[in-house]
């Protein structure tokens, strides 16, 4: 399986053009834990009947390529998906018939940032294109100041409680 994927990747890097793959957006910006839909479009003169259509989409970072979607001759091969994307990627089946690849990626992580390639193969025609995704960490200022505020309230409450206890404890002493 892995060999086949690598073969498809290497084939695509050698052959290009005959099948045109385009992206609707070259760059996406998103926040951690949000969802995004990455989109590609492919056009071919050949009959793009589903049984001859193969697609592999993978993310490239400086470490290694991770597969997020693999369709082999019209059949999804979830076993080929990288663990990083397990249960987080959904392909719109209806879109494929219109020559669109629409991948919904949910619960985005900062390490999802990178270049996303989709390679399309119909019979002997190949094509590929890429887009960039940048996932930024959620910086929640409000939560930070909220925590500080709660901390201050607790400190104040603590001081008051201590003062009250101190007064109560002192009272009997004055009776003597
Ligand atoms: C993200 O997608 C998941 C399922 O794919 C859904 O349950 C969730 O509500 C979505 N979240 C947002 C913020 O759209
Ligand atoms: C990702 O987005 C952040 C915040 O907008 C920006 O500062 C950073 O330069 C972007 N990184 C890339 C590689 O585009």
TrEMBL record:
Q: Which SUPFAM superfamilies match?
A: Immunoglobulin
Domain Immunoglobulin V-set, by residue range, is 25-124
Signal peptide range in chain numbering: 1-17
Query: Where is the protein found, in the record's own terms?
Result: Cell membrane
Question: Where do the TM regions start and end?
Answer: 148-168
Tell me which Gene Ontology terms the entry assigns under biological process: cell surface receptor signaling pathway; cellular response to lipopolysaccharide; immune response; negative regulation of T cell proliferation; positive regulation of T cell proliferation; T cell costimulation
Membrane topology category: Single-pass type I membrane protein
Q: Can you say what this protein is called?
A: Butyrophilin-like protein 8
């Amino acid at each position: 399986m892995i060999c086949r994927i690598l073969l498809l990747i290497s084939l695509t890097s050698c052959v290009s053009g005959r099948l045109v793959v385009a992206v609707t957006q070259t760059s996406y910006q998103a926040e951690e834990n949000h969802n995004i839909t990455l989109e590609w479009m492919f056009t071919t003169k050949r009959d793009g009947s589903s049984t001859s259509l193969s697609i592999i989409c993978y993310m490239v970072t400086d470490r290694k390529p991770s597969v997020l979607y693999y369709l082999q001759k019209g059949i999804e091969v979830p076993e080929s998906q990288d663990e990083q994307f397990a249960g987080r990627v959904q392909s719109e089946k209806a879109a494929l018939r219109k020559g669109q690849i629409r991948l919904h990626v949910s619960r985005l992580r900062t390490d999802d940032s990178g270049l996303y390639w989709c390679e399309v193969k119909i019979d002997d025609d190949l094509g590929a294109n890429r887009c960039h995704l940048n996932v930024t960490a959620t910086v929640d200022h409000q939560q930070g100041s909220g925590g500080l505020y709660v901390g201050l309230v607790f400190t104040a409450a603590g001081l008051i409680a201590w003062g009250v206890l101190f007064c109560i404890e002192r009272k009997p002493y004055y009776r003597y």
